[in-house]
């Protein structure tokens, strides 16, 4: 069972902004009051700091739209939510916590930055304000080597079989499966992981105390044996329709790549694949019979202008996520000079970064001679290595580089 | 029933080399004496002319290896072969004949040229010396808009269904299916075309009078209702093992693109796909369940470094062959200046061709800024448009360009 941190018991107004418990309480307040995916809000909270942001919202000194929205949500339920979560064995993880999946979610920060500059007009790719997490493992560790396996609700026996085999095969190679706990492929993926004795992460569009669909209560209990149930919404939140698309971006962001197992034409799971692509993550598809309507969407994905990679096994999935993930992820620990272990593209982008003023990704792409998507892929890695930094106007080489 | 041309009745030694019948008789002689795919021989016959080549072989003045090979084959059976063919309703088509599929086979001439320069070490991609053709339609017309549909002998019901549907769908859009009349996918493709009332071309590794496998005698009869049975070997020739790979290059060359429907890992039908790729023709694959061993080879093809295009319908096949074929093919008839209707790549390659000395395709690729394979794709088109010509050392702009 999780406990509520001491600092969270005092009000946000009274506590020390540096106290993790107070930050947690502020995070609980914010996730209850605001729907995730509001780019302006997340940016403002990031600039202000969550505790100061809540205080300014309560004092009415925050931007008017945010104050109005906050006031409309009524009384402060943050402590009640934290206590409810603790009773469930759940906790709220907020930016700055050790458990916060910084590397995974960094792509959302980059995407948000890109959207703010108006070069992109898709679903808001904005980092979450906090994540309600139920289960024992650490979220950051579990998603560090994870793959999203998603697909149609109306899956076939073939699709369910393949999703389950993939999840089991990923686990046997030390990788976690992330999915959305929906009927069909999602459930088959979670079940495959659980059956293999593996940890899996279910990312919900409702509170971590709710089972949606209701028939999946037992499945979610099994997921919690070794894995995690995660949500951006506080306990008790309902799975409202618009929340699924918002949730999908989180599935794409938390994992190193997304595999679509079965999807009809215009299936919702294709949206998750599109989010993954926008975040610079590998997108993969499992083919099926061309006579199956449930494979039409996957085949479209595999035929597109920027075709997804065809995969037929966990080994092939890891071959693909390894292209982006493995080499880059392992670099900082292994090498005295991170630069030596950068990929070709990363090195070119680094060389393209100016020393003084920051330049936007599209400029870097032009100078480095690569696609803007490649730039967006490697910038987070370069930043985590401390090689580049984001300043007004874009990116530049870190000034105090060792 | 075909008739034997008058000139063919006189001996090759006595006849006029310009007489089509004499050329046909020389072709019959050559296809009986030499196995196809001998690059040096085909080159020598091309340089010498078939009638003069046969005379020099009979006189013993040809290169020693060819003379020895010819002598080992015993008596002249050319007239007997032509008469046998005529009894079957078959004929021999040789280079220079109206029916010779010049455009289709031009890729083999280019590939042979490339191999001669040692940049390629695959199965000999050499044009045939002649084609024994059984059936009513003109070969050149039937293959002008054709697609090869090939696959495993040990196909599944799924594969057979898809192959048949593809062939029927191609015919309904005015396209012919080319295949090898083998058990499994080949037969299903021919049957699909025949059942749709369409013409189909069966390219055999034995004489056009033989059914291989024997159980396909009835199928080949149905193919002959509206289509063609084609072979490089004279009537009576046996389907020797090595002939299948040689035959496969012809299937790839005659058609505008090759679709593999089902193939196990390392299946022979992947060889046809590789030949098509080497000839610059689009390679396509129909996916299937990843749980099916018969789709493993196709999925490998769709995942390769130069992945084949995933197709799930005749419409998607034509979308793919149309990329290379349709626009280029239609250009000469429609436009007063062929240059105006060239694709981007073709125009760049044309611009890269020097006026005086010929340069090899790899140089053209470097200058035009495209892949060598693209250059090899467009050179035949440019040559048929009379825009470029092949000279010693490679290609240049045609001198007497209008």
UniProtKB/TrEMBL annotation, chains A, B:
GO terms for biological process: DNA-mediated transformation. It holds the Pfam family DNA_processg_A. InterPro entries: DprA (IPR003488), DrpA_SLOG (IPR057666). It comes from the Bacteria. Transmembrane segments: none annotated. Gene3D superfamilies: 3.40.50.450. SUPFAM superfamilies: MCP/YpsA-like. Residues 126-321 form the Smf/DprA SLOG domain. Belongs to the DprA/Smf family. This is DNA processing protein. The lineage of its organism: Bacteria, Bacillati, Actinomycetota, Actinomycetes, Geodermatophilales.
